[in-house]
Amino acid sequence: MWNPGKPLRVAHTPSLSARDASWADQAIKSEFLSVEKLLIQTIHIRTKQKLSDLRDQLRTTIVGQAECSISGSPAILQVPLLQPCMESENLLITVDTHTGYFLAFVPQHEPPMIDDIQDCLNKDGAKLDSLLTDLKYWMTVKRCEKTVQHLPVVASTHLPLVVPQGHPASRLGPHTLYIKLCKHHNCYVVVELSQCPSDPQEIVQTYYLMTVQPQAIPEGDPSSATLGGGVPREDGPLDAELPKAFLRVANFLQLDVFAIVHGPCTKIDASLLTGSGKRKQVSANDIQPKRPRFAGYFISELAHVVAFCDDRIPFCTLTVELNKRDICHQGMQIEANGTNFLVKIVQMPAGEGWVKDTAAALQASTLSCTLRLQVKGIKAWLAEFVFCNCPLTSLSAKERGPRRPVCFMYDFAAGTSAQVASVVEEMLQDWNTIGHLYGVVLRFAQAINLDQHNTLMSIVDIKSFTYKKLVLGYGLNKASTVTIYWRPSEKRFHLAFGVVGPTASASNPHTVVSAQLQHEFNQHRSVATLVEVLRDTYAPLLSLTKLPSAPQLGVINSRPQVPVQTFVIIPQSSMHIRLAYRNTYVLDIHCRPEGLIAVRDGAYSKFDKTKAVEDFTPIQGLRAFLSKFVDESACQLRRRSQSEDDNPPSPIPTLDSMDSFLGSGSALKPSSPAQRGAGGPQDPAGAAAGGLRFHHPMTPPSNPHTPASPHPSVLSQQSYVASPNPSFASLASPPSLGGTGGPGSAPGPHVSPSPSVLHVQAQSPGNLFGASSPVNPLHAPSPSFLPSPSSQVPMASPVPQGFMGSQASHPEGGSPFPTPGGSAGSMSMASPAPGTWPGSPSVPRPSPRLAPSPSPHGAPMQSPQTGGSSSMDHKPPQAVLGPGGTRVLPQRSWAAAMPTLLSHKGLDLLCSSGGGTPPQSPPLPHCSPLERFLGSVFMRKSLHRVVQNEDNMTMIPTQEPGVIQFRTETLQCKVSLNPATLQSLHLKLNPTEQWSPEELQVLERYFDTKVASFPYKPNAFMSFTRLMTAPLSILKDFVQLMRLELMPDRNMKWSVQLCLTIPPAAPPIAPPGMSSIVMIRNKVLFFLQLTRTSMGEPAQIAVPVVYDTTANTLQVADKRVDASVVQPSAPVAIIGSMLRRYTEYAPPTGECCIFPSIRDILINLTIPSQ
């Protein structure tokens, strides 16, 4: 029965503790009576009690002495499985308020074994310890993965490994993590987790370094493989789960963690160390120092080990490779302040093909060789060589220090052993490159030190020397460069040419001979020799590069659309170049020292000068043309430098010695001081002359071709026997001697020539004097200048003073003695003035008169070369000079086979556009003199072929070389080169009664300016010759058209141009470039090009016109006009209608209608605006 004096009470079964019971009884007080609150408090108390019992159980097994707190409502048990352990990593266990079952979870992860743990807590707890242990390992693996997540690695718990039985890798535990180093594809850091023997609750981490190789296992025998890092799979058939690719364990090494963590440059907490460096003993009462807080899941030891392996594996591979190649090194070291790893090489081995002195000098100047690994940006190996005592001082400011570092970079790639081996091989090749170049530079430096006159450094500038390459600057402003470097793959030097800064050419002229220079440099390997070759060839090559090389159309008359290159430079060697012109002519050009160039016709054989070889045509008149560009002053200096040093001239020549000198009747062999005939020892002229041509020198003469004999008897009794140099075979005829006064003066008896005439050397025709000069050696000589032993003192010399300044085509010829007066002439002895030397005989000077003077007998004599009665008649007949006429120079077909010496300035003038034009000569095309000459020769050859094939023309034989004479029905034509310039063809017509002088002059001028001029198209000759064979009335009308073309009438609306080749703008009647004038039966086809003289009309119109000789009509030859394809307002249609109207309404006069009808078009043609 209820007793109000007694309060309510609650009984708990099983009973609660007194503290918990008093806390629960508070819910039944009268003022707070609540059954719901009583249930909640009771459940909370029962949950805490149940969790407390579980905590006591776990402390005895898994957790140990770790603190496990129960807190919260509902109550939650926090079980720390790891030490240290974050709250998110604790295993949280609570009780379901409805069922009373345990609930377990980990906030941060979703472990796969959490359901099994929960079942064990609620049912059978036999497996609880093993499950919690697995959870502990699983969470540790997750910590490892979190630690390396920002490193260049990939972590995995299983690998398809192929591990042999008994291998250490086969004994790995089930809790293993494989960390693949992404920078080293075949390397893994293996982390094995295991229990500590002394403390079962502690997990020990063991680290291994493993390298693997890909391997495929036969499908029928997978038993030898252990998969998943030592964990064989138990679920399902093995062959169904095998991956297709496997990894075979190559190397497996356990790492010493203590040595790694406590290595050099590793930071250690200094607060825990004593003064002696030993770790302090920390007691329980000591205040712990404040340490920085780290995330609990970050395992610094693992991160350090992974980074350690990632950094050192490449260097370990590198040192192994260096050991294989017997390269002494100091092993892997840590650079100052721990910035990087490096490997220092003690001594590099000598390279292949090194000279012993070079190897010793390079080893002595090498301070260090260091290998580093660059990881920022592009990952690459860096090899740094440091040198001292650089043999050359360059212009670069960066290369003037005492310490010269040289760096090489090599691709790291994957960093495998094979790739590291290739890196070492490349480094050795680069070292070999340095050695080869250093040897060349060392010899060059020695040559510079021995050069007392500083010649080499005046030629070149050392722009850069980096031990990898040598860059030299030369030429104008030192702007042309040559780079010398060694290419290991080819085992030879390479030369690269370029330009830097302001220069005379956009490209380096030596580019055309780079292959030859490179080949020769690999033969002699002398930079000094290369420098001299560059000096001697720079100016000639620069001049040759000015010549046009663009292909031209219309060069081949039968195939005008085939392009032919104008000039082609064909290098034979660095000093020998062949220059081809239109695949027809070729020049052999040899560069010689001291600024000279030897030029010859390359179509002739080098062994037989009278025979042409190869596919080229000899160039007629080449030697005479080249002689106009001879710089005698430069050539004379070369001869003087060769002979004057050892053979000073005698100041007092005797008359006895000069008697034999003056009595010679033939020219002097240029290479010998002895008298030689033009035909050599077998020549009658050469055999007839005896004795020396000049007085005996006081010292034996020296000559590069004929060494002096020390026996005076030999000098006085016989000639020198020189090497048969064929280049000195072309000798000129003796010069003629005119009167000294006026035309009425005549020399006395026994007149001998002045010694100045004896300076005539081996000349090219026309090079010594002008064609009209009376002192030309090819002119008929005076009878007094015949071979005579007379020793009388001659009278006043009739030779003009200009004879001394004459030019010679071969400046190497002549006496080896210098000119006494020091003139620029090529002759070695002049007429000395009275009083030049004390007691010298009175030998007269040359006459100062420069005007032409006739022969002493008033009529020209015949040269011995022209077929006269002289015993020296050994040459083909030559042309003679008429009174007041132009002297024709003799030509030999093989004369150009002998070289002609030119200076660099002369060759540049020869190749420069607009150069080589005499002041008073007619205007020439704006191209180089060489192109004008070769083009004229090419056109003369084409004309000869055209005239021979033309039925209505007759060739007239002539003895004049280079002259073509032919005859048509009404005219006799003569085509020849301009004797003054040899750079243009000219037509000379013999007048007849049917032609006026003005008409002949128009024809000649038209031929000179339109037919045989630039761009030198041979089909123009065909058109012109067809015109010349046309009937007289037609030709006279064409002459009128030529007059309008040469002298346009300003009162006409249009100017006319007679097209000699079919223009590209013409209607498609025939291929462009073909001959445009065709005569078939009674039809004449020709093309006109009309050019407007006023604005507002078409600029140019190409019109094909057909003239009917029978009907005397003119019409447009365009089928499109008749077929109404062309619009009536088109220019061709308008011209056609005007021609038809002129034919209909013009009064019949019986004259040819070509010129009147075309003149009507030029005056009245009006093209409507489009």
The major β-sheet equals: 6 strands, mixed
Radius of gyration: 54 Å
Work out the helix count.
25
Quaternary organization: single chain
User: Ranges with pLDDT <50 over ≥5 residues?
Assistant: 230-240, 271-280, 282-286, 649-890
Structural class: alpha+beta
Question: Into which percent range does the helicity of residues fall?
Answer: 25-40%
Can you tell me the overall shape? elongated
Termini gap: 135 Å
Approximately what portion of the residues adopt beta-strand conformation?
15-25%
The tally of strands reads 35
The overall pLDDT, averaged over residues, is 75
Strand order of the largest sheet: 5-7-8-9-10-6
Question: What is the fold's blueprint, element by element?
Answer:
Layout: H1 18-25, H2 35-59, E1 69-71, E2 76-79, E3 91-95, E4 102-105, H3 114-122, H4 128-147, E5 153-156, E6 161-162, E7 176-181, E8 187-195, E9 203-215, H5 238-241, E10 246-254, H6 257-261, H7 300-324, E11 328-334, E12 341-347, H8 356-365, E13 366-374, E14 380-387, E15 404-411, H9 417-450, H10 455-459, E16 461-465, E17 469-474, E18 480-487, E19 492-499, H11 514-524, H12 527-544, E20 551-552, E21 564-565, E22 567-571, E23 576-581, E24 585-592, E25 596-601, H13 622-626, H14 632-643, H15 655-662, H16 684-688, H17 712-717, E26 900-903, H18 904-911, H19 929-949, E27 954-956, E28 964-967, E29 972-977, E30 985-990, H20 997-1011, H21 1019-1028, H22 1032-1046, E31 1054-1059, E32 1078-1080, E33 1083-1092, E34 1100-1108, E35 1113-1116, H23 1119-1122, H24 1131-1145, H25 1154-1164
Parallel strand pairs: 6-10
Antiparallel strand pairs: 1-2, 2-3, 3-4, 5-7, 7-8, 8-9, 9-10, 11-12, 12-13, 13-14, 14-15, 16-17, 17-18, 18-19, 20-21, 22-23, 23-24, 24-25, 25-26, 27-28, 28-29, 29-30, 31-33, 32-33, 33-34, 34-35
Helix pairs in contact: 1-2, 3-4, 7-9, 8-9, 12-18, 20-22, 24-25
Domain Mediator of RNA polymerase II transcription subunit 14 C-terminal: 1028-1168
GO molecular function: transcription coregulator activity
Biased composition (Pro residues): 698-710, 841-857
